[in-house]
Design brief:
By secondary structure, the chain is an all-alpha fold. The protein contains six helices and no strands.
Length: 98
């Protein structure tokens, strides 16, 4: 499934601001920055590094609901759904991925 940048950020923002998820405004800003960095990954290596940085953060540890949401919704499957379209094209064009 492909999701455009706008819809992806919209989904992330909606999840973060939902009061029942319990994320503070200060942590929302920090988490959005981590997510923007992941979304702007230019390669699988960049994506993996950015994801590891997020997963080692204080905010990741503080919000198990956020961990579950990201892991089950955005980081699941063979192909990360947050790749920008140019990285996706490179991924699909690579003979080892076919």
């Amino acid at each position: 499934m492909l999701v455009c940048d706008f819809r992806r950020m919209q989904a992330w923002n909606r999840w973060l601001v939902k009061l029942t998820n319990g994320v503070t405004k200060a942590d929302m800003r920090t988490l959005k920055q981590y997510l923007r960095t992941i979304a702007r990954s230019k390669s699988e290596e960049d994506f993996t590094h950015s994801r590891e940085v997020l997963e080692q953060s204080r905010e990741w540890e503080m919000y198990p609901n956020f961990q579950r949401y990201m892991t089950e919704t955005w980081f699941s499957g063979d192909m990360p759904r947050v790749f920008p379209i140019n990285a996706l094209i490179s991924y699909l064009a690579c003979p080892t991925q076919q």
